[in-house]
């Protein structure tokens, strides 16, 4: 069995790894560390929770131990898609470089530019950043990337998503062509892989599991339910979520609850708090200080349920998460793999339960196609699901009800409520009434059938209420 001591890491790095409690590398670490130490480009693909962060931090620290940082010219760069993931990578560097004199800077939004500028001016060996904040510092003239020796793109598929491609291309153009480039991700779609070929030179491809697979230690399930009424769908869905949590009992020590929209994150968190659950929200619109406090509270156990958008799905290593609940079916199937990868990490067992409504059928099929397996269906804990064939009637019922109510109001208008010579109207009373000629011509213009000669009302059809016809005849006679 391979051990870290067999991977040619420096003695100081090995000492830090041993003190962290690790002896045997994971498959992705065993495959990626040797070529990274040789200076080769690496494309690493592995499931979430398999130690991809250490796959690039350990060889980087070993390589950077030799050399010296210069002011405003960092020697290495790690790009991350979210602030939380960048902070986590920084913690890993602190853990594994405790016996190596390396300096680092963390460039993320929500933190003062001034504090970050001070670190950059002193010179750093490792620069960990999100793309937006990195370019902000460069445009302000506070940073040069011409001294980059090693560049890492963590969660590469998301970093190379359409929204990030221009920033990533620009950052790469600012770095030396001779740099070493490392890409790591849990998923790598073919079209994204074609883009990476632009940035990598003859990379060592390390794929320790089939792309986009979930760990076998994670028990998956999906609960399908159909709301009784459209206007009650959101409330009933929250009821289902609470029932699922209660059904897990003491086995659910803590959990991350994922929502697709930030607004739903806040709503679900407040609903859980109202019903006595220890929950807190986290999403991109919150202040960085609040996001950090929430994550710290979830890690130390003071918060049991973390209600999150996908900002918490990418790469975060939160130990001992027993459950993941997908309140919404993710619209991108790859996100499902990242979400449920927050549990069942490092060989532990975990459970992932997803709530699906009929409109989620297409996205659910895409997820099962991606992971190449069918997700077991679980019973709705509160029951009451309507049969599938009744759905169209249920959806249309409110419209028909409103139509009948308007018709009833129109037909039950009493003649006693009308002024002499005034025709009843279903519209606003303040609207001026049309003349008799206008009403007649309007009816004929629309092809309405009259009830006789020109002295008869035209355009009301064969089912005109008798009281309306009587009121017109009285007015014409007068």
How does this structure look, described?
The protein folds into three domains: 204 residues, Rossmann fold (3-Layer(aba) Sandwich), CATH 3.40.50.300; 171 residues, Rossmann fold (3-Layer(aba) Sandwich); 63 residues, no CATH class. 40% of the residues lie in helices and 13% in strands. It has 17 helices and 14 strands. The strands form two sheets. It has a seven-stranded parallel sheet. The longest helix has 21 residues. It is globular. About 15% of the residues have low confidence.
Total number of distinct structural domains: 3
Beta-strand residue fraction: 5-15%
Relative helix content:
40-55%
| Sheet/helix structural class | alpha/beta
Largest sheet, strands/sense/barrel: 7 strands, parallel
Shape descriptor: globular
What characteristics describe this protein?
Rossmann fold; alpha/beta; 13% strand; 3 domains; 478 residues; globular; 7-stranded parallel β-sheet
A few lines on this structure:
This protein is 40% helix and 13% strand.
Describe the SSE topology.
Layout: H1 11-19, H2 27-37, E1 42-45, H3 52-64, E2 76-79, H4 83-96, E3 104-107, H5 113-122, E4 126-129, H6 131-139, E5 150-154, H7 156-159, H8 165-173, E6 180-185, H9 190-199, E7 204-207, E8 218-224, H10 233-248, E9 255-258, H11 262-274, E10 279-282, H12 288-300, E11 305-308, E12 323-326, H13 333-340, E13 350-356, H14 361-371, E14 377-378, H15 391-411, H16 436-445, H17 466-477
Parallel strand pairs: 1-6, 1-7, 2-4, 2-5, 3-4, 5-6, 8-13, 8-14, 9-11, 9-12, 10-11, 12-13
């Amino acid at each position: 069995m391979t051990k870290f001591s067999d991977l040619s890491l420096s003695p100081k790095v090995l000492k830090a790894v041993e003190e962290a409690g690790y002896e045997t590398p994971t498959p992705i670490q065993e495959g990626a560390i040797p070529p990274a130490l040789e200076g080769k480009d690496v494309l690493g693909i592995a499931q979430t929770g398999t130690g991809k962060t250490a796959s690039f931090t350990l060889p980087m620290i070993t390589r950077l131990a030799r050399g010296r940082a210069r002011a405003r010219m960092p020697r290495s760069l790690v790009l991350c898609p979210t602030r939380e993931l960048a902070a986590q990578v920084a913690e890993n560097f602190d853990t594994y470089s405790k016996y190596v004199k390396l300096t680092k800077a963390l460039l993320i939004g929500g933190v003062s530019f001034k504090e970050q500028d001070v670190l950059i001016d002193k010179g750093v060996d490792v620069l960990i950043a999100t793309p937006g904040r990195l370019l902000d510092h460069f445009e302000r003239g506070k940073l040069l990337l011409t001294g980059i020796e090693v560049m890492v793109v963590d969660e590469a598929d998301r970093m190379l998503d359409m929204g990030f491609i221009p920033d990533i291309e620009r950052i790469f153009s600012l770095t030396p062509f001779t740099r070493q480039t490392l890409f790591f991700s849990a998923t790598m779609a073919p079209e994204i892989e074609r883009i990476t070929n632009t940035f990598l030179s003859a990379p060592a491809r390390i794929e320790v599991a089939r792309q986009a697979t979930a760990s076998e230690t994670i028990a998956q399930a999906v609960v399908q339910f159909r709301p009784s009424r459209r206007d009650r769908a959101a409330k009933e869905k929250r009821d289902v979520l609470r029932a699922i949590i209660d059904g897990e009992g003491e086995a659910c020590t803590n959990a991350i609850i994922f929502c697709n929209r930030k607004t739903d994150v806040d709503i679900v968190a407040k609903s859980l708090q109202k019903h006595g659950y220890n929950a807190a929200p986290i999403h991109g619109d919150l202040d960085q200080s609040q996001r950090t406090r929430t994550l710290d509270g979830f890690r130390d156990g003071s918060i049991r349920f973390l209600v999150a958008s996908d900002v918490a799905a990418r790469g975060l290593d939160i130990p001992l998460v027993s459950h993941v609940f997908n309140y919404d079916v993710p619209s991108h199937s790859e996100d499902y793999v990242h979400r449920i990868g927050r549990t069942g990490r490092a060989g532990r067992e975990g459970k992932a339960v997803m709530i699906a409504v009929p409109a989620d059928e297409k996205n659910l099929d895409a997820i099962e196609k991606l992971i190449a397996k069918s997700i077991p269906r679980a019973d709705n804990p509160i029951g009451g699901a309507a049969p599938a064939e009744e759905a169209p009637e249920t959806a249309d019922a409110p419209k028909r009800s409103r139509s009948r109510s308007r018709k009833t109001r129109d037909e039950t208008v009493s003649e006693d409520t009308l002024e002499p010579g005034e025709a009843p109207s279903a519209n606003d009373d303040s609207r001026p009434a049309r003349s008799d000629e206008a009403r007649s011509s309007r009816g004929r213009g629309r092809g309405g059938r009259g009830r006789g000669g020109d002295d008869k009302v035209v355009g009301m059809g064969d089912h005109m209420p008798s009281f309306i016809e009587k009121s017109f005849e009285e007015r014409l006679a007068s």
